[in-house]
Each structure stands twice: as structure tokens, then as C-alpha cells.
TrEMBL record:
Pfam family, one: ABATE
Name listed for the protein in its UniProt record: Putative RNA-binding Zn ribbon-like protein
Organism from which the protein derives: Umezawaea tangerina
Limits of the Zinc finger CGNR domain: 143-182
Taxonomic path: Bacteria, Bacillati, Actinomycetota, Actinomycetes, Pseudonocardiales
Highest taxon above the source species: Bacteria
């Protein structure tokens, strides 16, 4: 694969991968961020397979992955916009999460958590993503959307003052505000 410029949202990457990721976010957030307006980074079975491989996950059924991603994306949007979600999206995420659960175990080093899957492969991967999405939606983590102009990426706010998905989005936003303040008034 050749190195090329790839633009998604307002993120610019020069890298060997086809899929820009924030790299610091939970997998459900990274999956939801594969949808940018009309741009679908996992729109084909091949692209979905490449994305999941890039994320270090087992191959999944592309149609099921998009179904889960679309529901998670709409639920995340509802949370950050403060509106009630569609019950159908809740049902979809719960359906994917059902065969997967996180269990507590105790080792010589103390408590550990382990995934218990009643399915294998790609179905288990989607189950873990759905379960983690439920934890994000119902838990204390502050899910946010980037406030930089033109960016719609989700992220988990790990600091009270964080407003952007990446430092580059923050830099562009600050530059735009500075330009608006310093720009001379234009008369009609």
C-alpha cells in the first residue's frame, strides 16, 4: 500500500493505512467515527475487513458491522445532542451485546475482568463492541463530539476542558477564532 494523503472530516493523515483513527478512543467510538456524513469508511466488505484488521480485530460480517456502527453512531449522536434515541437502535445494540458479557475473575495478582463469549470470531468482536458501547452510553464517561468547524468525530472526554478530538482540531479552531477577532471589518 502506498503512502498518500487521506482526508476525513478535518483530520489529515499521511500514513500507510486507509483508515484514520484517533488511536486513543474505545473501539465503539472508533467504529462510530467511520461514518462522516456521506463518507463510509467501511462501506464495502473489503474496506470493513481492512478496518477491523487495522484495529487488530477478527474478521467480521460487513453488513452486521455497518448495522451495529449505524445504531451506535445514532445513539452517540442522541447522547451528545441531548435527545431521546430511537428505541430500534437500543434494540440493535442490545441484540449484539447479548451473547457477550464481562466477567470478574480473581488471579494471584488480584481481580481481573475477562470477556465471556458464547460466539466466536467476528460475532464475538461485534458483541464486545456493543457491550463497550453500552458501558459508554450508560456509564460515567463523558462522550462528546469535536467542536472544531467541519469535524464530527466522537471522543471520550478525559479532561474537563477537552473540546476537540485531536490537538490539530483544537489548533485549527483557535486559529479560526483568532482570525475572526483580528480580521478587519469589511464594509458592504
Amino acid at each position: 500500500m502506498e503512502i498518500r494523503w487521506l482526508t476525513v472530516g478535518t483530520l489529515f493523515y499521511r500514513q500507510r493505512v486507509e483508515f484514520p483513527t484517533l488511536g486513543t478512543e474505545p473501539l465503539p467510538v472508533e467504529l462510530a467515527n467511520t461514518l462522516h456524513g456521506t463518507d463510509d469508511l467501511i462501506g464495502t466488505a473489503e474496506r470493513a475487513g481492512e478496518w477491523f484488521a487495522e484495529m487488530g480485530q477478527a474478521p467480521v460480517d460487513a453488513g452486521r458491522a455497518r448495522k451495529l456502527r449505524d445504531s451506535v453512531h445514532r445513539l452517540f449522536t442522541a447522547v451528545v445532542d441531548g435527545v431521546a434515541p430511537d428505541r430500534a437502535d437500543i434494540t440493535v445494540v442490545n441484540g449484539f451485546a447479548t451473547p457477550t458479557r464481562l466477567e470478574l475473575d480473581w488471579s494471584a495478582d488480584g481481580p481481573v475482568s475477562r470477556w465471556r463469549d458464547t460466539t466466536l470470531g467476528g460475532t464475538a468482536v461485534l458483541g464486545r463492541i456493543a457491550t463497550r458501547a453500552v458501558e459508554l452510553l450508560a456509564g460515567p464517561d463523558a462522550l462528546r463530539r469535536c467542536t472544531a468547524p467541519g469535524c464530527s468525530m466522537f471522543f471520550v472526554r478525559d479532561h474537563p476542558r477537552r473540546r476537540w478530538c485531536t490537538p490539530s482540531c483544537g489548533h485549527r479552531d483557535r486559529q479560526a477564532r483568532y482570525y475572526r477577532r483580528k480580521r478587519p471589518e469589511v464594509s458592504p
